[in-house]
Amino acid sequence: MKKRHRALIGFFLLVIAAIEIRNLYDSLRGSSSSNGTEEKTKDDLEALEQRDQHRVQPKPLLNEEDQNKQSNNKEARSNPEKTNLQLKRKTVLLWNWEWLPDIGEPLDTVLERSNCPHHHLCKLTKDKRLVNISDALIFHRSLGPNPPLAFRRPEQRWIWAEGEPPCFGPMPDTGEPYNWTLTYRLESDLYGPYSQIYRREKPLQKDYMSIVKAKTGLVAWMVSHCPTPSRRMDYVKELQKYIDIDIYGRCGPGKVKCLKEPGKIMGYEEQCLRKLENYKFYLSFENSLAVDYVTEKFFKTVNIDVVAVVRSGANMTRLGFHKDWYINTADFSSPKELADYLKKLDANDDLYVKYLEWKNYYYSAMSTTLCRLCERLLYHDDPPKTYTKDDIRRFFYTGNCFKPNDIVR
Ligand SMILES: *[C@@H]1O[C@H](CO)[C@@H](O)[C@H](O)[C@H]1NC(C)=O
Ligand SMILES: *[C@@H]1O[C@H](CO)[C@@H](O)[C@H](O)[C@H]1NC(C)=O
Ligand SMILES: *[C@@H]1O[C@H](CO)[C@@H](O)[C@H](O)[C@H]1NC(C)=O
Ligand SMILES: *[C@@H]1O[C@H](CO)[C@@H](O)[C@H](O)[C@H]1NC(C)=O
């Protein structure tokens, strides 16, 4: 379980598509000879704003105070000389937070590689000796055994980070106090979804109709954890009464080996992902039904030619996902009704292809969470904030998990 948690937290800023990220790397390699840092600031801000326009998922919800800060920040941006004078390189210390264990992305270059315009002004590190000069410390789930309490400075932001939903058991001893939260919950101080969806600057020109016609499989599912709080296995068993499902992974009948592997894209063997493209539908069923909790199970389907059938506790619309990007079990009164709909799409290529065509215009990739953290440390003068254990309990551990209501028994 521990290991799995660690692996999952790594997905926070995970690269979803090798191809897109490769492109990104390549374009960065061309422009990364970043020189005098401060001079680049204005361009960088414009670059970030441009990139933000392409981000379709919402920014974290802001309260009024934050909004005022933002408009102040806009003034600062319109006066780059003034901003430059105030700029000081920021250090973010990942105190006990694992970094991308699944793909082994080196921490010190990840900002640059993910096109973060602030990379030259922001250092990510795990070196605990830098605690005294760190502007922010990130703690995963708890302060851990030897938190640097004695060295805590009031200007430092201590950040509570969590990527797993609170549905597996009682609240852990998080320790306290913290200053910010970083989770997949939209209302976190730093919204940290598993990945994000971006609009392509240059649309692809894929002919999805011919892709559809070449497909030979109907529904696929890849799963390695069988009993889960969401009881997805029970849902699938019911669904299987009405439609054929090929199951890969540890829970399938053939127990096909297609498990997460370190160093591989999204933690999955690419060959395995490509197998999915033979299918029309892929079941992106979360292990827990929790508010805002959508994981790589959905994001990994965005860049491959398969339609995700989502089962989660998230309001997908609220998270910025359009209705024709996925099929949601929540829109059907029973697994049978869902099966009927999938069969209807299977019989009607015109209807089915609408769920693929958007992929010409969008892709998923690493979330910008750490980049936005740097941006806030650099350019926003956020007022001090404190979260006690009770605040975290109210925010994260209370009322955010749902029992499945779509399974009989
Ligand atoms: C970087 O700056 C140095 C001096 O600070 C200068 O000699 C060099 O030409 C610059 N390189 C680029 C690529 O601008
Ligand atoms: C941090 O600074 C304090 C003095 O303010 C010093 O005692 C301590 O050793 C420093 N810690 C580290 C890890 O450098
Ligand atoms: C989901 O979110 C959208 C947009 O925020 C909202 O209009 C809708 O009522 C929500 N749906 C549910 C079932 O809460
Ligand atoms: C962080 O929290 C501590 C403890 O409540 C507080 O003293 C400090 O002012 C806070 N700092 C910031 C920057 O929010």
Main attributes of the structure:
single chain, 409 residues, alpha/beta, Rossmann fold, 2 domains, six-stranded parallel β-sheet, five-stranded parallel β-sheet, 14 helices, 33% helix, binds 2-acetamido-2-deoxy-beta-D-glucopyranose, transmembrane helix, glycosyltransferase, Glyco_tran_10_C
List the helices and strands and how they pair.
Blueprint: H1 2-10, H2 18-31, H3 41-54, H4 64-78, H5 80-86, E1 90-94, H6 110-113, E2 122-125, E3 136-140, E4 157-162, E5 180-183, E6 190-191, E7 196-199, H7 208-214, E8 217-222, H8 232-240, E9 245-248, H9 270-276, E10 279-285, H10 296-302, E11 307-311, E12 327-328, H11 335-347, H12 349-357, E13 362-365, H13 369-379, H14 389-396
Residues 129, 131-132, 151 line the site of one 2-acetamido-2-deoxy-beta-D-glucopyranose.
The amount of beta strand, in percent, is 5-15%
Number of helices: 14
Which strand order spans the largest sheet, edge to edge or round the barrel?
Answer: 2-1-3-4-5-6
SS class: alpha/beta
**Series of secondary-structure elements, N-terminal to C-terminal:** HHHHHEHEEEEEEHEHEHEHEEHHEHH
What share of the residues lie within helices?
25-40%
The beta-strand count equals 13
Average predicted local confidence, pLDDT: 80
Strand count, sense and barrel status of the largest sheet are: 6 strands, parallel
Point out poorly predicted stretches: 7-53, 57-82
